[in-house]
Known about the structure:
Layout: H1 2-10, H2 14-22, H3 27-55, H4 58-65, H5 72-80, H6 90-117
Helix pairs in contact: 1-3, 2-3, 3-6, 5-6
Amino acid sequence: MVLIMAPALDGLKREWxxxxxxxxxxxxxxxxxxxxxxxxxxxxxxxxxxxGNAFGAYATAYAFAGSFINxxxxxxxxxxxxxxxxxxxxxxxxxxxxxVIMGLCMTGYSWLQRRAARWSR
Length: 121
């Protein structure tokens, strides 16, 4: 998140803050009406990337939940380890669902990054 947000924060121009101050805005109004709308695509993009990373983390989910909670990554891991007699297509279906969700995450991230890039020109 730091690697994505640092350039976005550096992209905030000092002139924008000075213009707000000259027009009588408080620092809270600057952040609410100017800086936060400009940073919002980058913030949402980082949240999407963090969600995608957490969604695909098998080892962390297994370490915290064990095999008692049916999380998607744990069920797919169980299918890979050989628990295919109960429902043989479950692992394939869950994996396809994960691919679709990750594709949506990456599409949303790239759209938000293109939207954020127009302020850094």
